[in-house]
Every structure is written in structure tokens, then in C-alpha cells.
């Protein structure tokens, strides 16, 4: 009798070792496939996770024990037991249907208590706090073999806290530089079921999973993500969430804990706003000139103007205004824009041309003066020579000659 008992204990130990070996292989396979995925393969990985979770659940429950003469095995209800740390738990074990009696069945358990009703065993515990627990429901058949089913409950604990930070960096970031985000999850179990997602605003950046396997007790885990900053990230908020993926047998709403928001400040050098002004600008005397040198940057840039003359100019940051421009304003104007990241300059060459109205007035004045002079000459000549005929062309050419009277011509 003692020999039979020792053999049954040895066979149960062998069965438990095989079960843990299978679970370890499955988890290794899962984490290898998950760690090799890229972000676009998220849906495929989710399906893989669901399938493997089902496999693990059924293997945890339905891998059954020693004895080739066993025609049936005990059945647990529910088939998988996933319990939050410190919560009550219970299950029933239907030992067999026809190949045994209640007296030949039993339940090996480290915690809790059970009652037997025929071939049905009811196990209950008021507060489940054992992280590594294995329950074995078995019976001995007529051939003397022990038919065993092992149930390994999963005890979980949501993260106590989740925090996000930059690794070895404080203060503002700089454009096109690489930085590392770190998401720290405290006191969570089982860590192999933990998934961490990094977010920027409402956009998910990456899903990561722990590389620990078969760790049942709570532990701390850290996840990192490399990012390259851009000016579009300025003002964005980074955060991460930790989720326990416990499969279909777990809670309908997986436990999720999120971190605080981490605002990003990105510094970048000045950059011109809008289309650039031409380098050479021609304006008309008397017009108003606006030189646009508006730049954007973080921190906000400062402006310095270098002008050819000390004139009364209106400087509004990136826009220089010259009212009623004159020839003294011709020359080169230099706009220097700078912040803590960099300095840039922009040059404007101004050419002032005379107003066309001046030429019109000058032409009209010259024409009027010419007409006046001509009229004066004609009047003077007419007064001196009232009679006779003459050629105006000759008069203009020889103003001192006079015409001869016709009567004198006859005498000659």
C-alpha cells in the first residue's frame, strides 16, 4: 500500500514537470513571435496572443495525469481560474462519470477548503494570496492507476503605478535629435502578460511586451522607446499605459493604468514665414516701403536691422516700414534674426527711382515756356514792321533786316 502511494506521488510529480515544461515552451514561443513583430503587424500579433492564451488555458487545465488505463479524467469548472490578488475564488471538480466512486477521489490543495458531494468536489478560498499554487484533482480506478487533472490558477495584480520620463535628459529638446522615453511599471503580476503602449497625444507610437516568462510574483518592469524630435512635437504630450492581457478567461475589461502626461518642448532655429521678398527691390520716390523679415522659431527670435542711413524708420519686429521713401534711403538693409539655437540674416537692396509726375510737370513747363517766348518774339517783330511782306523764316534768321516799300522798287 505504501509502495502504491509513493508511485502515485512520483507520477504526479512527473506530470507536473511535463506541464510546466509545456507552458514554458509556449510562453517562449509567444514572446519570441511578439518581440520580432513590427508595428504594422499589431493585429496579427493580437490574434497570435489570443490563440496562445487559449492554448495555455486549456493546457493548464486539461493536461491530465498518469496511467494508461484511465478512460476519463477529472474536469474543472471553470476550466481556467484567473483571480485578482486577495479576492475570493472557487471551482468545482467533476472527478468522473462512471469509472470511479467518490471514496476513491481527492483534491490536493495548499490553501482553501473543499467539500465532496458524490463525485463532485467544491473548492473555495476566502482570500487567494498564494502566487505559486497548483491544484490536483484525481481518482484511483479499478486498475490501480491514478487519473489526475492539474489546475494552475493565475493570480494577477494590476500595476500600482505607471510613470513616464526621458532617459538621461531634462529640459527642452532640440530638433532632429534622438531621445529615449522610459515607461516604468511598478509592482505588477504576472509581468509576462503585461503590454505597454507609448502615446503621443492621441496617437499610439509602439506596443511593447515584457521579455520575462513564467514570473508569477509582482515585479517592476521598465520599457524604453527611442524617438527623434521635430518641431511638430513642440507642445505635444507623451504618456504610456500598462495593460494586463489575461486572455478570454480573465476580466472582460483588462486592467489598465496610465501614466501622467509629459509635455514636450522642442527648440529649433529661425525659419522664414511665407514667401521670401526679392533681394533687389525698386520703389518710387514718395511711396511707402514695407520690408518683411518675419521668422518663426522656438524660443521666439529677436530682430536687428542694419540700415544705410539714420532715418526715421518704423521697426515692428520682423517688418520694417519706411514712409515716403527718398533717394537717401537707397542702399542695403540687413535683417539679423537669432535665438538660442541659431542666427540667420536676410539682405534687401533698395533702389529708388524718380516719380513720373515730376517728368510730366517738367515737360509741360518747358512747352509752356517755349510758347511764351515764341509769342513774345512775334509781337515785337510785328510792331516794328507793320507794312510790307516778309518771310517769317527770314525774319527769324535775320531779325535786323527790314522790308523795302513797293514804291521805292518802282523808282529803282
UniProtKB/TrEMBL annotation:
Pfam families listed in its UniProt record: Ig_3
Domain Ig-like: 159-258, 270-351
Record keywords, A-Z: Membrane, Transmembrane, Transmembrane helix
InterPro entries: ICAM_VCAM (IPR047012), Ig-like_dom (IPR007110), Ig-like_dom_sf (IPR036179), Ig-like_fold (IPR013783), Ig_sub (IPR003599), Ig_sub2 (IPR003598)
Coiled-coil zones: none
GO molecular function: integrin binding
The keyword Transmembrane belongs to this UniProt entry's keyword annotation: yes
PROSITE patterns per UniProt: IG_LIKE (PS50835)
Transmembrane segments: 357-382
One of the GO biological process terms: cell adhesion
PANTHER family linked to this entry: INTERCELLULAR ADHESION MOLECULE (PTHR13771), INTERCELLULAR ADHESION MOLECULE 5 (PTHR13771:SF9)
Protein name according to UniProt: Ig-like domain-containing protein
Lineage: Eukaryota, Metazoa, Chordata, Craniata, Vertebrata
Amino acid at each position: 500500500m505504501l509502495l502504491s502511494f509513493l508511485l502515485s506521488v512520483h507520477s504526479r510529480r512527473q506530470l507536473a514537470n511535463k506541464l510546466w515544461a509545456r507552458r514554458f515552451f509556449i510562453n517562449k514561443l509567444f514572446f519570441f513571435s511578439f518581440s520580432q513583430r513590427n508595428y504594422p503587424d499589431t493585429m496579427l500579433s493580437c490574434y497570435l496572443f489570443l490563440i496562445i492564451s487559449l492554448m495555455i488555458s486549456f493546457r493548464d487545465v486539461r493536461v491530465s495525469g498518469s496511467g494508461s488505463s484511465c478512460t476519463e479524467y477529472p474536469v474543472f469548472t471553470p476550466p481556467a481560474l484567473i483571480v485578482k490578488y486577495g479576492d475570493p475564488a472557487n471551482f468545482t471538480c467533476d472527478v468522473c462519470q462512471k469509472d470511479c466512486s467518490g471514496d476513491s477521489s481527492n483534491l490536493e490543495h495548499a490553501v482553501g477548503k473543499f467539500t465532496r458531494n458524490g463525485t463532485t468536489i467544491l473548492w473555495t478560498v476566502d482570500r487567494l494570496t498564494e502566487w505559486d499554487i497548483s491544484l490536483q484533482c484525481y481518482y484511483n480506478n479499478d486498475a490501480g492507476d491514478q487519473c489526475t487533472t492539474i489546475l494552475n490558477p493565475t493570480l494577477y495584480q494590476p500595476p500600482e503605478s505607471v510613470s513616464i520620463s526621458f532617459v538621461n535628459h531634462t529640459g527642452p529638446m532640440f530638433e532632429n535629435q534622438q531621445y529615449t522615453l522610459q515607461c516604468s511599471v511598478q509592482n505588477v503580476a504576472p509581468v509576462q502578460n503585461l503590454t505597454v503602449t507609448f502615446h503621443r497625444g492621441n496617437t499610439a507610437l509602439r506596443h511593447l511586451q515584457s521579455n520575462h516568462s513564467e514570473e508569477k510574483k509582482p515585479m517592476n518592469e521598465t520599457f524604453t522607446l527611442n524617438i527623434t524630435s521635430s518641431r511638430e512635437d513642440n507642445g505635444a504630450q507623451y504618456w504610456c499605459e500598462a495593460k494586463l492581457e489575461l486572455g478570454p478567461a480573465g476580466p472582460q475589461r483588462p486592467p489598465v493604468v496610465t501614466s501622467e502626461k509629459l509635455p514636450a518642448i522642442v527648440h529649433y532655429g529661425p525659419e522664414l514665414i511665407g514667401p521670401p521678398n526679392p533681394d533687389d527691390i525698386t520703389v518710387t520716390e514718395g511711396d511707402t516701403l514695407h520690408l518683411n523679415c518675419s521668422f518663426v522659431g522656438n524660443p521666439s527670435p529677436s530682430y536687428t536691422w542694419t540700415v544705410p542711413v539714420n532715418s526715421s524708420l518704423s521697426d515692428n519686429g520682423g517688418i520694417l516700414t519706411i514712409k515716403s521713401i527718398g533717394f537717401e534711403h537707397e542702399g542695403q538693409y540687413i535683417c539679423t534674426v537669432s535665438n538660442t539655437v541659431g542666427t540667420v540674416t536676410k539682405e534687401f537692396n533698395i533702389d529708388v527711382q524718380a516719380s513720373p509726375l515730376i517728368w510730366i510737370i517738367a515737360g509741360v513747363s518747358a512747352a509752356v515756356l517755349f510758347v511764351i517766348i515764341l509769342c513774345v518774339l512775334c509781337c515785337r517783330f510785328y510792331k516794328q514792321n507793320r507794312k510790307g511782306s516778309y518771310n517769317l523764316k527770314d525774319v527769324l534768321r535775320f531779325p535786323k533786316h527790314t522790308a523795302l516799300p513797293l514804291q521805292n522798287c518802282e523808282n529803282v
